[in-house]
Specification:
single chain; 244 residues; mainly alpha; Arp2/3 complex 21 kDa subunit ARPC3; two-stranded antiparallel ribbon; globular
């Protein structure tokens, strides 16, 4: 748990809202036992495990966003919230010798669920439908809402926990993850257009594509982190020489 009281209160608020949403979603979901919904859950959870560490920022990015956006458009609010929660749960599980942090796990799952709920609200809003007739374009608008809610929530908790600038943290996250948002919204929009009336085959085809994106990002971020580490070592050497 964060040490500061303000951070604790904020985390508790997000967790309570997220768990209220998921409880309401489970109560109102009508298609939990269908093959298509089960496919969404499994594929989103597998994509959630494909995560990369963002260099210079406390946080990671997983490849589950296209599945969340597709569930927003095709499955409805309750099902989208469940897909978001389960995929975020899979993303947040520790690897190797890492320890499970229940507070961090609950916050991550709740924050993603809130973002998915915001995206569904935007996608289904009559005023948005009136101005944006194309489902693919409307999903892009909903993706922007998802991205804003998610990144602002994470930037706020990082700021409260690490005493960092909210705007600076959010700007860094925006620069690192915006290309991924555009790619995910594009993939989800194409799948939405191609997958009308189809079953689980279209979401299944997305997983290999996002796996390729994952390895590309991991290689790029790995090189960036190594460069930052090397720069830090060189700077430390210069500082040490100055002290001598």
């Amino acid at each position: 748990m964060p040490q500061s009281m303000s951070a604790r209160i904020f985390v508790a608020l997000i967790v309570v809202l997220g768990f209220l949403l998921i409880a309401e979603a489970i109560r109102n979901a009508h298609s939990l036992l269908t093959v298509r919904f089960a496919a969404f859950l499994v594929l989103a959870a597998l994509a959630g495990k494909l995560k990369v560490k963002l260099p210079g920022v406390t946080g990671s990015m997983s490849m589950n966003l296209p599945f969340i956006l597709l569930s927003v458009a095709l499955r409805g609010g309750p099902e989208a919230a469940i897909v978001a929660f389960i995929s975020s749960f899979a993303q947040s599980l520790p690897r190797g010798k890492q320890r499970l942090n229940p507070a961090q796990l609950a916050f991550n799952c709740s924050a993603i669920t809130l973002a998915a709920a915001a995206a569904r609200f935007i996608y289904a809003a009559p005023v948005v439908s009136a101005w944006v007739g194309s489902p693919g374009l409307r999903l892009a608008v909903a993706a922007a809402g998802y991205f804003l809610v998610n990144t602002v929530t994470v930037a706020l908790v990082i700021s409260l926990t690490e005493k960092a600038s909210v705007f600076g943290t959010w700007t860094e996250m925006f620069q690192l993850s915006f290309p991924y948002l555009v790619a995910s919204a594009g993939v989800a929009g194409l799948a939405l257009t191609a997958g009308q009336g189809t079953g689980w085959q279209v979401p299944l085809a997305i997983l290999p594509l996002m796996t390729g994106v994952f390895y590309s990002y991991r290689r790029y971020f790995g090189a960036t982190a190594q460069a930052l580490t090397s720069a830090g070592i060189e700077a430390a050497g210069v500082a040490a020489g100055a002290r001598i």
